[in-house]
């Protein structure tokens, strides 16, 4: 009986085993078919990559031949021009010895002018020759590196039944992409690869960090992020939180990444090879396309140059007398190298990051504007700490002090003219969707010929919708700020109009502080109850009516600055 049971169990076991084996074979065949399909697709992609590789090499060879031809033509032109210069110099020298008539002198001067033009042409040709030579050397180097090399090998499906992993595919494609980027980088942007000027005797890599186009100095992190928009965009900046520490900022895979440049044992590095200076480190990663870190996989593709129009070096300005102190630092009178007098706003080095960002906000706003009633930005010094903002020097000082000192001399028409200047400047800002948020007599400056200029854009914001929301009451000028801004943090051009009404009151009261006898809190409560200041002594009725319109509780009922500008222009014409 037991023997029969054992035989039965054995028979059942064999049956189950065979069934499992059959299922496994079935599943294996299905998976194998999937793998074969994937493998065939991989082979197609690799063959396509190989063709692209060959195309890139062919284009490279064609570009090199074209470049060689252009170089030969340039060199021949250079020889011809140099011979012409020597010949003309000889003729001028001989003519100078026998020059007696006036007509001869005129001819001699004409020849000298032609000589100078020829010399300039020769210099330009030398620069072009240097450019083409440098490009040719780089391209020849790349061609030699790849000369005779086949692209990454592709396994024929029929000849090899081994599986190919996705990692192998990724590595091959990565190799191809690296070579393609290296060649394309030179062809597409020789200026970036070779430097901004081929006439320069100093190679780009030997220039100090501050002179590198991709070095933006001590700009805030948030401003750096705004500049990075496409895959591989990069720049280097000095850390705001830790002066002397440098950061590489890169746009990669939809994110802005920030890498601290390590400085250990007198060498700069990320995690690999070290270099004696930062330009060499960045150039290495940019030209070789070596990843910044293995974990990140970030590659440098496009250096983002700084806006040289506004960049000044600290050495370009000499600080003079102290003009005053502000929330962020001190303001000095300064002189540029060309003897231009300027105002220099400095930023304290120990300020928190968010305040340094606010400090540079003024320069960011003013870069976009050009109006006679808005103080002009000349440049910024961000290459190192402390940061400077360089503004035009407005000689008359702030408007509030001017009113108080000159109150016995200022005529009514001049007060209206001052008001019109501010309205004109604010109408311009209104058209640009710029909200000042701190319009007051103390923040206007009196320029030459008593032209009033709006200044102090540290709190300003440029908003597409013309409305800016803020929270908290830090550093808010209560007596100048509209109710909706105080209550809900809602700023707009309409809230600036309210502030303009207060500025009008300051102007025609000749510098009296608004809501005299009231604290900030009392003034705020009274305004909420419907209280409005009465007209200053000797203030024209038409001007006071404008003030009252500016102080309408509902923002939508207040006039536009463009309307105020027209209205004040009419009033000014009426006054004799």
UniProtKB/TrEMBL annotation:
Gene3D superfamilies: HR1 repeat, Phosphorylase Kinase, domain 1, SH2 domain, Transferase(Phosphotransferase) domain 1. Residues 25-142 form a coiled coil. Residues 1-213 form the F-BAR domain. SMART domains: SH2 (SM00252), TyrKc (SM00219). Signal peptide: none annotated. GO terms for molecular function: ATP binding; metal ion binding; non-membrane spanning protein tyrosine kinase activity. The active site is at residue 438. Mg(2+) binds at residues 443, 456. SUPFAM superfamilies: BAR/IMD domain-like (SSF103657), Protein kinase-like (PK-like) (SSF56112), SH2 domain (SSF55550). It holds the Pfam family PK_Tyr_Ser-Thr. ATP binds at residues 345, 442. Residues 214-304 form the SH2 domain. Its EC number is 2.7.10.2. The keyword Nucleotide-binding applies. Residues 317-571 form the Protein kinase domain. PANTHER family: TYROSINE-PROTEIN KINASE (PTHR24418). Belongs to the protein kinase superfamily. Tyr protein kinase family. This is Tyrosine-protein kinase. It comes from Bos mutus (wild yak).
């Amino acid at each position: 009986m037991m023997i029969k049971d054992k035989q039965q169990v054995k028979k059942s076991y064999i049956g189950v085993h065979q069934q499992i084996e059959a299922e496994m074979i079935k599943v294996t065949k299905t998976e194998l078919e999937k793998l074969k399909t994937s493998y065939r697709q991989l082979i197609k992609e690799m063959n396509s990559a190989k063709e692209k590789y060959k195309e890139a090499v062919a284009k490279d060879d064609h570009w090199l031949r074209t470049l060689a031809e252009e170089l030969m033509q340039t060199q021949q032109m250079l020889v011809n021009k140099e011979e012409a210069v020597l010949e003309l110099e000889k003729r001028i020298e001989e003519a100078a010895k026998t020059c007696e008539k006036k007509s001869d002198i005129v001819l001699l001067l004409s020849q000298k002018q032609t000589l100078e033009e020829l010399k300039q042409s020769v210099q330009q040709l030398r620069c072009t020759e240097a450019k083409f030579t440098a490009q040719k050397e780089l391209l020849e180097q790349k061609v030699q590196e790849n000369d005779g090399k086949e692209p990454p090998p592709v396994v024929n499906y029929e000849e090899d039944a081994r599986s190919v992993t996705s990692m192998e595919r990724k590595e091959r494609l990565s190799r191809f992409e690296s070579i393609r980027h290296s060649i394309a980088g030179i062809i597409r942007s020789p200026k970036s690869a070779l430097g901004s000027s081929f006439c320069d005797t100093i190679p780009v890599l030997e220039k100090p960090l501050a002179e590198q186009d991709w070095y933006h100095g001590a700009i805030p992190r948030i401003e750096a992020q705004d500049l990075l928009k496409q895959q591989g965009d990069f720049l280097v900046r000095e850390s705001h939180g830790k002066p002397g520490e440098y950061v590489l900022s890169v746009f990669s895979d939809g994110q802005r990444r920030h890498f601290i440049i390590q400085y250990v044992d007198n060498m700069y590095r990320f995690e690999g090879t070290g270099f004696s200076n930062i330009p060499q480190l960045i150039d290495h990663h940019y030209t070789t396309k070596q990843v910044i870190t293995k974990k990140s996989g970030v590659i440098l593709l496009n250096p983002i140059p700084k806006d040289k129009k506004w960049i000044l070096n600290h050495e370009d300005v000499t600080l003079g007398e102290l003009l005053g102190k502000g929330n962020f630092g001190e303001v000095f009178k300064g002189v540029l190298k060309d003897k231009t007098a300027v105002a220099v706003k400095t930023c304290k080095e120990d300020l928190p990051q968010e305040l340094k960002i606010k400090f540079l906000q003024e320069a960011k706003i003013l870069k976009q504007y050009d109006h006679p009633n808005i103080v002009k930005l000349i440049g910024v010094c961000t290459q190192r700490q402390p940061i400077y903002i360089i503004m035009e020097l407005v000689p008359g000082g702030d408007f509030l002090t001017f009113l108080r000192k000159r109150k016995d001399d200022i005529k009514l028409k001049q007060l209206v003219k001052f008001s019109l200047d501010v309205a004109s400047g604010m109408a311009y800002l209104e058209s640009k969707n710029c909200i000042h948020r701190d319009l007051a007599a103390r923040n206007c400056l009196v320029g030459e010929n008593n032209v009033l200029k709006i200044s102090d854009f540290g709190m300003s914001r440029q908003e597409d919708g013309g409305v800016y929301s803020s929270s908290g009451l830090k550093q808010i000028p209560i007596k100048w700020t509209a109710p909706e801004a105080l209550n809900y943090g809602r700023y707009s051009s309409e809230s600036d109009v309210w502030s303009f009404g207060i500025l009008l009151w300051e102007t025609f009261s000749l510098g009296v502080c608004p809501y005299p006898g009231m604290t900030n809190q009392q003034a705020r409560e009274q305004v909420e109850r419907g209280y409005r200041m009465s007209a200053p002594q000797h203030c024209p009725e038409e001007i006071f009516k404008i003030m009252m319109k500016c102080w309408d509780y509902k923002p939508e009922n207040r006039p536009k600055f463009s309307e105020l500008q027209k209205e004040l222009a009419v009033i000014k014409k009426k006054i004799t």
